[in-house]
Write a structure and sequence with these properties.
Layout lengths: L20 H8 L3 E5 L2 E4 L1 H20 L3 E2 L5 E3 H7 L10 E4 L5 E4 L4 H11 L8 E10 L14 E11 L2 H21 L4 E5 L10 E7 L5 E6 L5 E3 L20 E4 L6 H8 L6 E9 L2 E8 L6 H8 L4 E3 L2 H8 L17 E5 L8 E4 L5 E6 L1 H4 L4 E3 L17 E16 L9 E3 L5 E3 L1 E8 H11 L1 E2 L2 E2 L10 E5 L5 H16 L4 E4 L5 H11 L3 E5 L7 E6 L6 E4 L3 H11 L2
Parallel strand pairs: 3-7, 14-18, 15-17, 17-20, 27-28, 27-29
Antiparallel strand pairs: 1-2, 4-6, 5-6, 7-8, 8-24, 9-10, 10-21, 11-12, 11-21, 13-19, 14-15, 14-16, 18-19, 21-24, 22-23, 25-26, 29-30, 30-31
Length: 570
Amino acid sequence: MKQSKIFIPTEKEVPAEAQVKSHIFMLRAGFIRQVAGGIYAYLPLANRIINKIESIIREEMSRIDANEMLMPEMIPAELWKESGRFYTYGPQMYQLKDRHDREFIMAPTHEETFTKIISDEIKSYKKLPLILYQIQQKFRDELRPKNGLLRGREFIMKDAYSFSSDQKGLDDAYDLIESAYKRIFDRVGLDYREIIADSGSMGGKDSAEFQAIAATGEDIIAYSNSGKYAANIEMAEEFFEKKIPDEDKKALVLVDTPNAKTLADDADYLHVPTHKIAKCIVFEADDELVAVIIPGDYDVNEIKVKNFLDAKHLSEAEEQEVFKIFGAHFGSLGPVGLKNKDIRILVDRTIQNEANWFVGSNHDGQHYANFNLDRDLKDFETGDFLTAKEGSISPDGKGKLVFTKGIEIGHIFKLGTFYTSKMGGQIQNEKGKLSDIIMGCYGIGISRLLSAIAEQSNDPKGFIWPKAVAPFNVHLITMNTKNESQVNLTKQIDKNLQEAGFEVLVDDRKERPGVKFADSDLIGIPIRVVVGRQADQQIVEVKARGQESTNDVSTDNLIAFLKDKLNELK
């Protein structure tokens, strides 16, 4: 491919709207252009990389006997009303009507559509299991699209769905796709981790995320520094072992905490660490008030609370409403005396391991001292409701938790019967009875994956693409297009390399060498071959992107040398 014939609109300046490296370099290197906020055109170089990523995905999905198909991007709204998600998905969903006033949505995901097809066509367990997938555009009306392809309103996604007649079928499909995803992310050259995750609005319980390690990532990953444990901060746990408190219980007494506005004020006045003040946070969970009791030096984890309650909606209660029921303002709330107020009480499991806590009394300016869970509270539930802290012992007991940032590139779910039970997805099982088809859902954000690779594969000069996804293998540069020897040798090398299976971008532009080298570094093709002053001696200069050293190589040995050099690269 001649560089003079390919559309690569490079820029020297850093675009004002770009903040993260992947966005900056993809704009500067002419990979993408914004059409509207959060909506991008993929120019030839980006499109070549996307095609390679998709090819790797297709190979690995075929390896596990998954079927590729293609669903419509515009979906009848009644399908989402049938599942209930039309009313809960929120304002990110694009909605429209046709000329007959029928409601449609632009698909943010395709669980309902796949469920509808399978429910209509599969009636017997003998036709299962099945794994179906597609690669397609998706649409989500993000409130604040940002960071280029990392958070956009239109994006490319590979979504897969498994359909099984029993739990073992789901488990087997989940394991197959989990292994396939690991091979995909290994092949594209990513530094990533598989972590425990929350299923969110997708339904189901068991799920895992694949996170690419990146300083610009929006997600926080907690992982053990000496074990295999890794989880999204929303799901991360700390080591816990139930034990008997190591101090005697004291009598519950009321103490004054005047003018204390914050937990730190209370701790200073009472001369105790903030840890020993058990704070009470009140939530509205669907139509129920819930009080959550946690140690004062921790933050409550709302995802854990929501999952424990199996709630559809969870939000912190308004102080004015809380005051009407508790008789006190925030900072003075506590669990004592709530039994008769029809409030569900959740207590973090760590509270039971210590004696003599300070808690709010539900009277402004006063706290109870020496609160003991087993003596002073009835009708409560315990669980893990804390946001894990960096440096805490990993829940598997192996090492300590380390935090890093990551970009979510894949997510796998065990949906169970969340959709099929609502949408008529039943089959006749082995016993001749009707049962719900059991589903799994598995996604890879392809355009986000492109950005994640870009975030990890760069230096100050531009991209350093992994060889598996690079737009070309070799960047062949003619130093002087007016020099006949250089031009002729370039043509011969291009022909030989293509016949040997290399993908070659030939810089035949009438530009200065400095411009060509700068653009080459910016584009980031793995190997650069320069035809220059030694063309008459049939010698070229070879340099790997990201390495400082160069090699003078005879054209007779060039193909063998390039193969060896590519094998060395990531």
